Amino acid sequence: MKKKIHILPVILFFSLLPMTLFSSCDKDTNSYLEVLVINEGNRAPVPGVKVELYQNNCDPSDLNYSMGITDANGSYSAKYNAPAIINIKASLEVENDGVRIGTGSARLIEGETKTAQVILKTEVEY
Description:
- This protein has 126 residues and is mainly β.
- 13% of the residues lie in helices and 40% in strands.
- It has 1 helix and 7 strands.
- It has one helix at residues 7-22; strands at 31-39, 50-54, 66-69, 75-80, 85-93, 99-107, 113-120.
- A hairpin with a 5-residue loop joins strand 5 and strand 6.
- The mean pLDDT is 85.
């Protein structure tokens, strides 16, 4: 009695094998940071705050420098290509030519989203 070789299952197996082996290489290696700016007095989110994210210097020439404005929910998000420790500076200009400032830092991990809260001080700096 001869055994029949089923060619279709063999072809299917060898065509799907490389896809399953190499699909695990597609995982997300970026790091994400979401900054939530909170008012010191009432603990409410603050929209319209300038947020600067940097690694070494608060300087636009820094490779990891990012700047943006918080949305209506007091949030600003950024994406990084590698894990890092990021410094955060939030500043809000007030009517009498002063600035309210809040600072913080966050350690980013590959493939994860880190949420950092920054408390915006009530004192105005001139």
